Amino acid sequence: GRADLQTAAVVEPNRAFFYSYHGKALSLEGSDALARKDLALARQIDPKDPTPWLYSAIQDQQTNRYSDAITDMQESIALNDNRRLYRSDFLLDQDKAVRNANLAKIYQNDGMTDLSVREATRAVDSDYTNPSAHLFLADSYYALLDPKRVSLKYQTAWFNELLLANLLSPVGGGPLSQFVSQQEYSKLLEADGAGGSTDTEWRSGGYVDSQNSLFGTYGRLSVGVDFVYHQDNGDRPDSDDLRKEWWWQLKYQVTANDVVYGLLHTREQTGGDLFSNYNNVSLNTGLRFEDKQSPGLALVGWNHHWAPGSDTLFLGGRLGADQSEAAPGTSQLLLVRDPNYFYPGFIEPAPGGGIQYAAPELRDSSAHPVSISAAGALVYSPDFLRNISPFLGEAPVTGVYSSTFDFATERRLAIYSAELEHIWRAHGNTLIAGARWQDGNYDTSDRLDLEDSSLRGFFASPAADQRFRVGFQRQSEYIYDYLEAASWLTVIGGVSFDRLKRPDNFQFPPLDGRQTTKSRSNGKFGLVMRPARWVTLRAAYSEVLGGVTFDDDVRLEPAQFAGFAQDFRTVISESIASSVVAPVYKNKGVAMEGLLPTRLWWGATYTDLHERVDRTVGDFDVLFLPAFPAGLGILPAGTPETLRYDERATSLTLNQLVGSEFAAGLVFRRIQARLDDRYPQIPTSLDSLADQQGTASLDQLALTGNWNAPTGWFASVELDWYRQRLEGVILGTAASATPGDDFWQGNVAVGYRFHHNLREISVGVLNMGNRDYNLSPLDNILEPPRKRTLFLHCRAAF
Question: Which among 53, 50, 58, 52 has a CA at the least distance from the CA of 20?
Answer without folding.
Answer: 58
